[in-house]
Amino acid sequence: MANSFTQEYLQIPAVTRAYTTACVLTTAAVLELITPFQLYFNPDLIIKRYQIWRLVTNFLFFGPLGFSFMFNMIFLYRYCRMLEEGSFRGRTADFVFMFLFGGVLMTLFGLFANLFFLGQAFTIMLVYVWSRRNPYVRMNFFGLLNFQAPFLPWVLMGFSLLLGNSIVIDLLGIGVGHMYFFLEDIFPNQPGGRKLLMTPGVLRALFDTPEEDPAYSPLPEDQAGESWQGASDEEELHPGQDERHDHQNEPQDPDEQHR
Which of 24, 113, 128, 250 has a CB 3.0–4.6 Å from the CB of 177, allowing a cystine? Predict the structure, then answer.
C-alpha cells in the first residue's frame, strides 16, 4: 500500500506536487513547531528585519485544519493539476512563470491592503485561468448549481460570501487571473497585439527539457558509439513500450511588540 501511495504521489505533475506538499507541510508545522505570526505577510518585517521568507509563506498557509483548509486544498490540487496537465503540458517553465507573475502582483497589492495570507487568492487565480481556457465545460457545485466553467470563480466568491468571509481575496485572485489570461491569451491575438509575457530563459533552462537540434549531425566516432549503445538498449525495451513513461483582522505579532 505504501508503494502504491508513493507511485500515485510521484505521478502528480512536479509543480502541483511541490506546491500542494508545501501547503500541507506548512499547516502541519503550524500545529507543532511554529505559529501563523511567523508566516503572515508583513512589509515592515520583510523590509526592516529582512524576514524574506514571509514573501513565500503567506501563500502556503490556508488556516488551521478544518473545512476551509480541506476546501482550499481540494480546489488548489484539482485546478493546479488540470492546468499543468492541460494547457501547460510540456511547458513547465511557462507554468512556473505564471506562478511568479501572480505572486508578484498579489504581493504588490498586499503592500497597500491589509491582506496577510494570499494562498486563497492564488487558488482563485488558478481556477480563473483554467475556467477561461475551458469555457464549454459544464460544472456542478455540490449538486446545487449547474453552470459553465467561466462562472466557477464567481460561484466560489459567492460561496465565500455566504460563509461570512470577505470577498476581497477572491476579487484579487480573479483580477490577477484575468490580467494573466488577457496578456497571454487575448491581447496577442488582437490586431496589432503582441505577446508581452515572455518566460525568462533561466526558467526554461531549469524546468524545460532542451529540444534536440534536427540539423545536428554527430561525429563518426559518436555514431559508432551510439550504434553499440543502441543495440544493448533495444534488448531491454519491449515492443511498443512507452519510453515516456478569515484572516481579515491583523494578528498582533510578538516581534512588533518589542520594536
Answer: 128
